[in-house]
Amino acid sequence: MSPGRSPTTRARATATAGPAHEPPARVARVARARLRVRAGVVGERRPAAGRPREPVLAPPGRPGAAAPPSGQLPVSARGPHVTRSVLHDDAVRVLSSWTAPDSGQEKARLEFLRHLEEHPADGLWRECAAGHITASAAVLDPSRSRVLLTLHAKFKAWFQLGGHCEPRDATLAGAALREATEESGIGGLRLVPGPVRLDRHAVRCEGRETWHLDVQYTVIAPDGAPHTVSDESEALGWFPVDELPEPTDDAVRRLVARARDAGYEPTG
To answer: Transmembrane segments in this chain: where (predicted)?
Structure first.
């Protein structure tokens, strides 16, 4: 994952560009960024009965990032004429319908929704100084025994793949899948519907201390698919889900554990 850029549409509706002050779409990076993000979807199944609940998340900061002066997301002034994006509406829908696995995640869910309510025009974009919604994914192999992580070039630590939303994104799931495709160079990634975790962490972004409010998904890679290192990464590597490399952080460990245990049934 790229905490400072970044914490997925395939055959989805084209995103409606945000208001004039929103960021323009990034210039295409390299040929792998032009990989067609296909609409392969993986079906969900309920977690096995009796599985213990995961620990309540404490929002850790990323290496090199100090928390903003206030631990709260400030209320923004809201004018009478606010234009929301298609992505904003999708984010509200996703977070409103998602069932949190524990009290800590429920608190995060409500905080993310409050942020979107208080920042209807810019709450998904990196320019929002109060923090912004991001999207990431734990990329697993079909057996769910290995995870693909990126050694971030700036932070020198291993993270999941993901990052900032863009005006062309129509859905949070699509943003997570797009980022995973761009950063891995792997075509044919398949998304497990619905988030698996939420994570709020302090980062330095756009030259200031802020927050990433990361909506995290699971993505399944084709068996044996080759990967390509992106310009935001020093390395990519597959690791056993119970033997993650160092340095990493607890947020990555919790995401990988949750993605491994959530379960899925391939379709198509």
So the answer is: none
